[in-house]
User: What shape does this take?
Amino acid sequence: MLTPRGFWFFFVVILMCALGAGYSDLIGSSIAIVGFTLLAWFLWEWAQFAYRYYYVMPNLALNREVSDERKAVPVLWAEGEFDVRVNVGLRNFGNLPYVVLTDWIPTDARFLDGSEEAVVALAPGRPATLKYRLQCPAPGELRFEGVRIRVGDRQGFFYHRTLIKDGATFLVLPRLTGAEGNRRGSKRHNIFPPPGVHRLKRPGGGSELLNLRDYIPGDPPKMIAWKASARKDKLYVKEFESEVPLRCTLFVDASESTRLGAKKKKLSRLLNLAAGVAEATVADRDHAGLVIFDEHDAQIMRPKRSRRHVIDMLTLMAKAAARPTPLGPFADANALSRLAFPLAHELCPDLMHKRINSAPAAMFWSPPSDYRRGWWILLFMFPMLFLGCGPLAGLAALFSGWSDPLAFVVWVLFWFFRNLAVFGTLSGFWLTVILAAFFMTIGTILWWSHGLSGFFEPWRGERLRRKQLGVLFATMDGEAPGAESHYLHDDQMFARRAQRFLAEHHARYPVRLYDARGRYLFHCRPKIDVLVKSLNYAVAHGRDNELFVLMVDLIDLADDLDHLLRAVRVAVARHHQVMVILPWQEDIPEPPREPPDETRIPTGKAERFATGGYRAIADELKRDFIAGYHRSYFKVRREFGRLGVIVVRADHDEPVQMVLDRLDRLRGVGRRR
Assistant: This one.
């Protein structure tokens, strides 16, 4: 609460009061009067600040409003701009003469213009307002934690920082690409009929002839029935039956592998693509369904074609994108503690205060059994064992003879000490005592240095952060007293809880993708089983010919596609259409047109390594990774191509039109026009 300026001012005032009172007989009472006057003024300012801190600041109120160009909105759109308006004021009484307000901008948003910070004076009936403009580049969820409050007096003697918690969340729906303009202009009047490719006796744009009517100026010439017109000597126009709506079900992969990354996630690309397909399908009066699946379960929305259904689909997509970044294994506990510690101080200043969450001095003592730095024990234990091998060696050699090689070794050590004692200037007893004392002194010095090292950086800071965050996590989870010791000593337990804490508040943290052996840590085989179960359910409840669009990340699962291929083979046998859309990794270049020749043996690696050093090795590893990624892609495309299933990459907006073209192919089944 007391700033350095206030501390030094208080120190000088106390010094003036002491000098003035002690030397009043020599220099008079003027210095004492000035000192006590300044002290009284300082105490009055402290009392006013304490009153504002304990009674006025709890009356702060926060009101947030997010709006677009027209009005306040409860949900937002990806890649859309929106205005944020924050009002902070006092409810009842009191005033705050100097306040610095800073709004907590969400991590996933992009700041455009305005001001998220203001220096104001608050009083009842005079709230402060913050206005700024944001943009959210990807679907998901925006979380506003609150407004940071920094309160001080006009002289700068006292200072306090806190947070008015808000916790408001806004869903960010995937953007609509305007795919309504891609619908077919010849399709009409299929408002209520059931889906399928069977006949529907109603005028429309189908394939079966319904009736003949008189020619009306403006009708297209290709619709004229020339044979009937020649017989009657009058122009007649053909009318066809109406096309029934088709059904398109989108399977979107929301597993951990698609939610990796800070900004350009694979899941965001898939959701934007699914939103465009759903928009165009429903605008074309067809039925669109959605299946969001991951490693555990799937959420299914049956195909419908209302505008409300599209909004429900976008909401489900936004909730899938709002899931936190996955918790990666083998995380660095100390790196996560450095990220979570300042965030915890911002969000929970009361629980992180040293008066409540203290760290005793004994906690920083490093015991000799510390597994991270316990290797030095060998420096002390090995000489002691070496010294004590003399008496034991004789007994071992006496009872075991020379049959045991280990006994022979210790026998040699015994004779070494015996000869050292015989030819030395001192007796064997005193030599043993001196050597033992020497090694004990060295061990004691190492023991004390190891124990006191915990009081110095970086070990002191790491242990302090781990302890305070452990108490915070145990309090938030409602665990029993003493549970923070697990977070202090168990690195993996602390790392997973710190990752979960950062993910809940949409803070970015590093996630390791590969282990020490180069194996991909998010290779998720169970999501294939969930996808197969959902696809079989859709096929079993399908009506006539349907289109199933599988938007799945299958590059790392190229060797585990047998189960999925069997399900796709069943769908194709039931006369359904299947498409596979793969999300492409951003830092991987486009694959070549033809698969690479796997039989060709690369040459020249040794020369490149010799001339380039470590950089050449790193470049070669990157090339091998890209080549393996391309091989997996071609393998997936080859396996699905054998079933007549098209496989495309989701790295641009072209797949939207490809899905619509595949729907047109379904409409054209059985046409005789």
